[in-house]
Amino acid sequence: MILLLDQASKLYIAKNIPLYYSIEVVPNLFNITHIRNTGVAFGLFAGEKTMLTTLFFLTISGIAIGVISYFYYISSYKNILTRVALALVLGGAIGNLIDRIRFQEVIDFIDLHWYHYHWPAFNIADSCITIGLGLFILETLITKRT
């Protein structure tokens, strides 16, 4: 479901909103802005698209997906929070990997800001990864306390 929602939203943005065009949704708070990110989260390591950087990001993404899949596989069915967290991260990672394979960059469009102070644009996959990691950390802290 995560993958479907992520890819459908990116497809809609790519087909209907020109690159760098912004639609104000909530004044001084939220825009839909079509941006392409050649780097990783929050635009880190962004720059020119080269075959070497694309290959590097594809490799790192593939390894991360493998590790997350392994932890999902070995996690207990009773530990629902861990499985949900890992599923969110996995769905988000695969969603961004698909973009890297197709475009050698990731489509971002959620633009949160306070007047002229902008948070780096992101997408649904990024949101799922962030929420999943937060849940995983929370579960780890809860488990250590009990």
Tag the structure with descriptive keywords.
alpha+beta; globular; 146 residues; 4-stranded antiparallel beta sheet; 4 helices; single chain
Determine the oligomeric state from the structure: single chain
How would you sum up the major sheet? 4 strands, antiparallel
Global Rg: 16 Å
Instruction: Report the sheet-strand fraction.
Output: 15-25%
Mean pLDDT: 91
| Gross geometry | globular
How many strands in all? 4
Assign a percent range to the helix content. 55-70%
Gap between N and C termini: 32 Å
Number of helical segments with 4 or more residues: 4
Q: Can you tell me the residue ranges where pLDDT is under 50 for at least 5 consecutive residues?
A: none
> Which structural class is indicated by helix and strand composition?
alpha+beta
- Strand line-up across the major sheet: 1-2-3-4
Report what the structure shows.
With 146 residues, the protein is an alpha+beta fold. It has one domain (2-145). 58% of the residues lie in helices and 16% in strands. It has 4 helices and 4 strands; from the N terminus they run H-E-E-H-H-E-E-H. It has helices at residues 2-16, 51-74, 80-103, 124-145; strands at 22-26, 30-37, 106-114, 117-118. It has a 4-stranded antiparallel β-sheet with strand order 1-2-3-4. A hairpin with a 3-residue loop joins strand 1 and strand 2 (30-37). Helix 1 (2-16) runs parallel beside helix 3 (80-103). The longest helix has 24 residues, at 51-74. The mean pLDDT is 91.
